[in-house]
Design goal:
By secondary structure, the protein is of the alpha/beta class. It contains nine helices and twelve strands.
């Protein structure tokens, strides 16, 4: 399978040819695809706020959904997307996915750091049906969206540039009690592997936005390779 996270696509279709070329390459492989969140820099699953670039991505998912598993986990830059398009994806929860053997836990990672209070409060306020309804019917909805853009793109991203070691350790401890052996996250924009004392291996994956790297994971052999997307082999 291919894991990809934090592409943070913004702008128009014409300005993101590389991203869609990569999706075309994915189509020429036999891999399942796991989108680990923040695929778009801001995506609200509400018709009034969606753009052609979102629709092009959804069209690709629709064409591929019967050819491979497509997992889409919402990041902190995506709102109400899974609720609207869950029929396209093979996961049942927007925040995590677990493999069939229940050994591997996949998540975006924005809920790991319980000390990131400002974000957690913002998430609680905005990621709910009441807020979604307000955005759909109230005339000042666009003002709220502009506020979200400012909050999500503020220059202070220190919580993503370093791994919150203590919080990750607590997260791993919790997941170990459920029998997981591997954890994959994005969000932190920092490639790192942590082999925990309890036997779990925690992977913080590289962000595609800056590195253009994807992760190829053989779920049978557990072999993991980070590589530039153009190095991906076709069938």
């Amino acid at each position: 399978m291919i894991l990809i996270t934090d592409t943070h696509i913004k702008g128009t279709i014409q300005g993101n040819e590389e991203f869609f070329s990569m999706l075309e390459l994915f189509s020429q492989t036999e891999h399942d695809i796991v989108f680990l969140g923040d695929i778009f820099d801001l995506w609200l699953g509400i018709p009034e706020y969606e753009k052609p670039i979102h629709h092009k991505f959804i069209k690709w998912c629709l064409e591929e959904q019967n050819k491979r598993k497509i997992i889409f986990l919402e990041g902190n830059h995506e709102f109400y997307v899974f609720d609207k398009y869950s029929h396209l994806f093979h996961n049942k929860d927007k925040d995590f996915w677990i493999d069939e053997k229940k050994e591997i836990f996949f998540t975006h990672g924005d809920l790991i750091n319980k000390e990131d209070n400002n974000y957690l409060i913002l998430r609680k306020i905005t990621k709910n049906n009441i807020c979604r309804l307000f955005l759909k019917i109230l005339p000042f909805g666009k003002n709220l969206v502009n506020y979200l853009k400012r909050k999500l793109t503020k220059p202070d991203k220190t919580h993503k540039k370093t791994l919150p070691a203590e919080q990750i350790d607590e997260f791993i401890e919790r997941k170990s009690r459920s029998g997981f052996k591997y954890i994959f996250t994005g969000h932190f924009h920092l490639k790192s592997t942590i082999k925990h004392k309890n036997g779990i291996t925690f992977f913080s994956l590289p962000d595609w936005e800056e590195t253009k790297e994807i992760t190829v994971f053989d779920i049978q052999s557990k072999n993991i390779t980070n590589q530039h997307w153009q190095q991906l082999q076709k069938r």
